[in-house]
């Protein structure tokens, strides 16, 4: 890359998107010599970007928090305002932008000076939303998890299940997914040697171990769908398979992520895999789609739907009688 300004912007982008880079890796990415790379690093430092260099065989370069915010990006007031907005959005009070907010917050807090970070924390700690939907998650925990996913760094944390069972986990984190206003961490559990999904509000004392890992092949190309299916079916008492007689595009407009996973059968039909602890809840969820359907499994759901349909039929088949007077 012969164009110096473009090369420096590319270098800055690389430093922001990965915690550590070795010199040879950066030289290869930028297609420059080690000497040119060192000059570009010095130029970034002159502009105020705190690039730290570690010597030795395992050394490299990384962008750290400095004493001043890097110039030409944001001033202090803008940085505080954006950090507060991102933390609020990451907490789930702004719909549909949570995941983007966490990624942006991880980049911003990496270089946010200490005195500005204290202002952000003060504003966050002493402002209270009127309504909080669902469990809350500390944005600093989300930031730590997002950075570990980005840097491919192993994590340790304590975890509490829905039943209250406690355990310590050692994992390789891959993705953070927001489903139904709850955060989930998809990762490889090193002890159990399998993919696991953890509710972030149920984990505590997370910390990055400093151990790097090579990425594994993901269990699905659609990570969000995989997480939604795993949290829907993993702990539920009943797992249902239902054919819905409507195009998948129509059903998708009526279904929530926690309601299950849709699969196309043909242009007029789709399949729903869902789960719940209650047959009544399964029947209610499927019935509220207002679509013709067939239940394939479990047998208990088939029996309950037959019983429910008979009960509803009796409710309208009996001869009409005058309604008793209602006292007001």
From TrEMBL:
The keyword Transmembrane appears for this protein: no
Cross-referenced Pfam families: HTH_11 (PF08279), WCX (PF25583), WYL (PF13280)
Domain of life: Bacteria
Keyword Transcription: yes
InterPro entries tied to this protein: CBASS_pafABC_assoc_protein (IPR051534), DeoR_HTH (IPR001034), HTH_11 (IPR013196), PafC-like (IPR028349), Tscrpt_reg_HTH_DeoR_CS (IPR018356), WCX_dom (IPR057727), WH-like_DNA-bd_sf (IPR036388), WH_DNA-bd_sf (IPR036390)
GO molecular function annotations of the record: DNA binding; DNA-binding transcription factor activity
The protein's name in its UniProt record: YafY family transcriptional regulator
Lineage, opening ranks: Bacteria, Bacillati, Actinomycetota, Actinomycetes, Streptosporangiales
């Amino acid at each position: 890359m012969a164009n110096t300004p473009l090369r420096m912007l590319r270098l800055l982008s690389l430093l922001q998107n990965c915690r550590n880079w070795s010199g040879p890796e950066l030289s290869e990415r930028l297609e420059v010599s080690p000497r040119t790379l060192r000059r570009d690093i010095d130029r970034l430092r002159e502009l105020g970007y705190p690039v730290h260099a570690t010597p030795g065989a395992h050394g490299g370069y990384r962008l750290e928090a400095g004493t001043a915010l890097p110039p030409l990006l944001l001033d202090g007031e803008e940085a505080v305002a954006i950090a507060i907005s991102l933390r609020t959005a990451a907490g789930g009070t702004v719909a549909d932008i949570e995941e983007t907010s966490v990624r942006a917050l991880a980049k911003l807090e990496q270089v946010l000076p200490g005195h500005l970070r204290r202002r952000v924390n003060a504003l966050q700690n002493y402002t209270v939303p009127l309504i909080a939907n669902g469990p809350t998650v500390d944005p600093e925990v989300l930031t730590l998890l997002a950075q570990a996913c980005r840097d491919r760094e192993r994590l340790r944390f304590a975890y509490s299940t829905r039943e209250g069972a406690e355990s310590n986990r050692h994992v390789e984190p891959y993705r953070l997914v927001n489903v139904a206003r709850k955060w989930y961490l998809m990762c490889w559990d090193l002890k159990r040697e399998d993919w696991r999904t953890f509710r972030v509000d149920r984990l505590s004392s997370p910390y990055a171990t400093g151990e790097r890992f090579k990425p594994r092949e993901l269990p699905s190309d659609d990570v969000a769908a995989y997480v939604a299916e795993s949290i829907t079916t993993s702990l539920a008492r009943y797992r249902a398979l239902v054919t819905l007689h409507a195009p998948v595009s129509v059903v998708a407009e009526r279904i929530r992520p926690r309601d299950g996973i849709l699969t196309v059968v043909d242009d007029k039909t789709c399949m729903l895999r869902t789960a719940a602890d209650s047959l009544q809840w399964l029947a209610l969820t499927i019935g509220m789609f207002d679509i013709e359907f067939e239940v394939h499994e479990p047998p208990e759901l088939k029996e309950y739907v037959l019983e429910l349909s008979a009960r509803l039929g009796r409710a309208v088949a009996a001869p009409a009688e005058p309604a008793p007077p209602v006292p007001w």
